[in-house]
Design a protein that fits this description.
Elements (H helix, E strand, L loop, with lengths): L21 H30 L5 H26 L6 H19 L5 H20 L1 H6 L12
Helix pairs in contact: 1-2, 1-4, 2-3, 3-4
């Protein structure tokens, strides 16, 4: 299929004109915060694996690289949300859904990880609410059932 048949597939030309809704901006900000946190945690693990004395340096390095790569997904989704790309909603939703069990793991742990779990849960739930809102779908130019635009 060419972009002539689907002009908004690459350029986002089918997205509504006008200012970006605050819900969409908030969803992009939440995805960016989560992506930056993952990249930051990955860099920390990678540096500690290379310069520190972890029990298993190779595991720390691999975990760091994995977190960095995983952090790129919500960062790319955040950029897509800001640019009103329809495809960006899926990766952003998946990021929020995957953050919930991780937040639960932190919440059920002992000690200093509980505040991290609270912050993660709040971000994930807030991000989900912003992303499933009809105003967000409309701002991204999403169509309703049957291929028609929602009113």
């Amino acid at each position: 299929m060419s972009t002539e048949q689907h002009p908004d597939s690459e350029t986002g030309a089918g997205a509504p004109e006008g200012p970006r809704p605050r819900r969409l901006t908030a969803a992009a900000a939440i995805a960016a915060i989560e992506g930056l946190a993952l990249v930051g945690g990955g860099l920390f693990m990678l540096v500690m694996g290379l310069t520190g004395k972890p029990d298993q340096p190779r595991q720390a390095e691999t975990g760091g690289v994995t977190l960095i790569v995983l952090g790129l997904i919500p960062l790319i989704a955040a950029r897509g949300l800001l640019l009103r790309r329809r495809w960006s909603r899926g990766p952003a939703l998946i990021t929020q859904l995957l953050a919930l069990p991780v937040a639960w793991m932190f919440l059920t742990s002992d000690g200093p990880a509980i505040p991290v779990g609270i912050a993660m849960a709040v971000l994930a739930v807030t991000g989900l609410v912003q992303l499933v809102n009809p105003a967000t779908a409309e701002a991204l130019g999403m169509r309703g059932a049957g291929g028609t635009r929602e009113p």
